[in-house]
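Quick look at the format.
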Amino acid sequence: MRYFQITSIFAGLVFLIFFATVLLLDKPVMYAYIYLSLPFIIGIISLILTINFFLKLTIVLDESSLASYMSYFSINLAGINFIIFIILFTLKMESVINIQWKIITIPLYVVIGIGLFYFIFMMPAFIDKMLYWELGLLSVFILNTLIFLILLNSRLDNSLRLSYVIIFVPVWLTIGLNYVYQIQNYTKGEDRHDTLSNLINLIVNSLLTIAFVLIALNLDKVFLSPYVISYVLIIFSYVLFFTDRFLIQFNISMYEKKK
């Protein structure tokens, strides 16, 4: 299971680097987006396999777990829709198909619908454990993702002439609320590992905020800065985030060995 997890993370990093390289090249590369789609699809498949192995283990340990079966179905359906989206996106960018973005992103709407369904199903568990902050963040994330996708599709299809600064407001709102959440966790960190993890998350949120602000300002031609700055910030945030995940898993493994 761990090998699939590492593969998905590495494939995600390769995808980000390839994507930045393709956009920064002066001359278009033939079939560039086809090559670009490969690490994305590999990453999605590896991630699905990782979660499937985890859920299969959960089901084996608790055969009556309805939540595990629902998670199993939801994750696989979401993964399939992500792959369909990246295929349609690749064909669109390679000018093989000429359809509107709102049609191409239908699989992403399906993923959001799955996330909403799963969120509603898990809501009582969040309330029972008094995880109100987490509940609020998840609801805001799902809603803002939907709003951002609708606005971006309308802009790309030229049916709505909003500035990209306004279109990115849902993204900044989500990051901002997560920033407040991480500050709250940082101030009440009970041990140094929690404090370090929350500090890393604060840095990641800050870097992503700067990156998306620069991208929006560049797209609106308000403030022109090299796109490479935004891409480097996003890639660095990605590396930082998963470094923190690995540190957490390492600490858990060390704690279990001591027990």
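Next, a different chain entirely:
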Amino acid sequence: MAGVGHISILGIGDWASKLKGKSISIGMYNDAGKYLTDHIRFSNTAITWLNSLSSTINWYTQKGLVWPAAIAMGLGMVLGVQIAVWGTGGKLGVALYKGLFGLCTWAVSIYMFYQITPRAKATKSKGREAAKRFQQRVEELRKSGGLHELEGITNVKYSLSKVEFDFFGEYFVAKNYLPFFYGLLIGFIAALIGVGGGFMIVPFFTALGWPMYITPAVSALTVFLNQCSALAGWLARGVQFV
């Protein structure tokens, strides 16, 4: 949504088209149109950075954050972001950027549609059971006025190879190499089109069978790490706050 706002509502996309080829000298940029295209990506990053920071704090206080999994994916995303920033920075015109933005959106939409098919749902029985017990516990505590006593993630164990935890009677585990390498890909795509990547992160963890009550928390911290890396990269290239 931030990208749509910067491109269409604020009209930066039109300005990038009009100023294509105009000579400038800002940081590592000498083409005004390509600078504005990267500024769209930079501005989107700044907005999602602030949002992800707030969300991470909120999820942590609610005991819903499996932080080792977020770190594993976040490390991959940090690397993927830098590859995208330095590999595509100053090279994309706004027309190509819009095309890539639309293509990635369609690809994710197709994947998310697959996740609601019976075949995909069959792999998530543990997550559904944990979510059901979570909802029941919330109702019990709400009636008694004790929502502050709501349990969250428990028995978190982590190593270089995997992360394990319990959530309302169900045991979950993930190998760290899977989030890391997937994070590398997501980080590249996220920086390429100027998004946080949450809409690609959540489907990944739900596909592992994790309940929806905890995947947004992992996504929030992962996006925060991703956007820290992206902001540093764009600033190093000379993109400025305006």
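The two ends are 20 Å apart (CA to CA).

See the schema section for token definitions.
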